[in-house]
């Protein structure tokens, strides 16, 4: 009899769990991985920093997010979806699912936005969203429920029931469903789409021009090398020769820093020196020598 009562208790506990939470289930049918981030309303401390990503593995992988009580946070939660593992890199193609779980009305609101996707943009454009073409569907599974809990989807280049512009208007596609149902977001429902090219590839270094007017350094695009104002770029951004220009703060990227006086290694903080601090970790080999061997040459030269 003891065993039987345990089973009943378990069943009750299980029922409580099931009825307490609605879930958002991601299913990724694309041949590449996708990622999502949770971003909460102001004051919620849910920031969705780039490194807080959650991966949904490609080729049929799935991940479940249990809806949180956003009524307690006074604002909905946004799930930002992308096909690259970062989104805070400027204007990029992000799909956004938003939900607002309202236990007081035993329901949740949800919507789907493609505002950040550039229609017709190819995979070389960071604002490309592969699943607009490949298909994405946000729905509450079960045919019978679909009338009450409408789906939103994109397929073959066209989206339905989704936000494609900012603002709010009559008949805007904010959808509602009773609590305890789950939201499923399926990606690449039609075809594989084309994954966005990696927009974090290192960009070519800007070409520096010999300073025509004595200014140099970050933001100007001017280097002192080859300029008639002197070979060193001071921390204040002026070319010159001599101590104030060659000393601490000299910008090695834009000038010949005082190698003989200050050392032959350029540290990660853009200072010249000869100790491990300058020649070791973070040393910029483009602007001088690197390697701990160099630190044996001299002690700090100042
Ligand atoms: C997309 O296009 C394909 C091929 O023409 C078609 O089979 C499919 O039904 C379309 N999907 C939707 C949701 O319209
Ligand atoms: C030199 O030219 C740049 C770019 O036009 C300007 O920002 C800077 O203020 C000028 N510097 C001087 C010393 O005139």
From TrEMBL:
Gene3D superfamilies, per database record: Endochitinase-like (3.30.60.10)
Cofactor(s) recorded in Swiss-Prot or TrEMBL: Co(2+)
Family annotation (InterPro entries): Chitin-bd_1 (IPR001002), Endochitinase-like_sf (IPR036861)
Residues annotated as signal peptide: 1-20
Occurrences of domain Chitin-binding type-1 (ranges): 236-292
Keywords, in A-Z order: Carbohydrate metabolism, Chitin-binding, Cobalt, Disulfide bond, Hydrolase, Metal-binding, Signal
Keyword Hydrolase applies: yes
Molecular functions per Gene Ontology: chitin binding; hydrolase activity; metal ion binding
Protein name: Chitin-binding type-1 domain-containing protein
